[in-house]
Amino acid sequence: MEPLVAVVILAAAVCAFCLIASVITHEHSWVDRLWSIVPVAYVWIFAGFDGLQDPRLVIMAVLVTLWGARLTFNFARKGGYTGTEDYRWAVLRGRMKRWQFEVFNVLFIVVWQNAILVLISLAAFTAYENRDTPLGPLDVVVAIVFLALLAAETIADQQQWDFHAAKAAGTTPARFLTSGLWRYSRHPNFFFEQAQWWVLFLFGAIAAGSLAQWTVVGPVLLTLLFVGSTRFTESITLSKYPEYADYQAVTSAIVPLPPRSSHAARAAA
Hints:
Layout: H1 3-25, H2 30-34, H3 38-49, H4 55-77, H5 87-95, H6 98-121, H7 123-129, H8 137-169, H9 188-208, H10 217-240, H11 244-250, H12 262-268
Helix pairs in contact: 1-3, 1-6, 3-4, 3-6, 4-8, 6-10, 7-9, 8-9, 9-10
C-alpha cells in the first residue's frame, strides 16, 4: 500500500467518526478535538513508509509532533476535550435552518476541514517522493524557522491564557487583549499557526528542488479558512464589544505589524 492511500483511508475513517459523533452527541466540535492529532499521524505515515530512513521526513514528523503537542495542550487546558462545543457553531445554528446547518456540518465542518488537514500534511508526500534528495543547509534553516514560529505561537497563546485568567479573577479592566504580541496583531496565534504550515511546505519544495509544487494548495486553503474564521469571530466580538472597532482600526488583523496611530486610522476610515 502506498502511503498516500493509507492517509486517505485514515482520513475517511476520521470523517466518518466525526460525522457519527456529531449526530449522536448533537454537538459539532469533533474535528476541533482531532485537529492537532491527525496531521501528526499523517506525516508519520509518510516517514514510516520509508522505514524512518529519510532524515528530512523524520525531522518533519518530529516538528509536526511538537506542533501537535503544543496545540493539544492549549486546547485541552481551555476545556476542549470536556464536551464543550465551539461557541461559534451555536451562533451559526441560530442563523440557519436546521437542515441547512446539518448540510453545513457534513460538507464544511466534517469533509472540508478534514480535507484541509490532509492537504497541509502533503508536504511530507512531496518529501517522500523526493527522498533521495540529501538533507542540506536549507532544511536546517527551515527547521529553525519552524521552531521559532512554534515558540512565538506558544507565547501568544500564553498571553491570551493569562489575560483571560486575569479577566475571570477581575484583576484587569480590559475586555479583550491588546498587549504583548496582541498589540501588533489582533490574532498573532493565527499568524504563527498558518506560518508553520507554509514553512513545512518548504521542506517538500526543497526536496523537490522547486517551489512549484501542487501541495501548496494545503497552506493556501488553510490560510483562506483562517481568513473566513477570523472575520466570523471578529463579527461576534464586535457585537459584544463595540469598542473593538477602535482596536481593529489601529492593529493589523493577522500579520504582526507596528500599530497604526489613531490619527492615521481615522484618516484611513
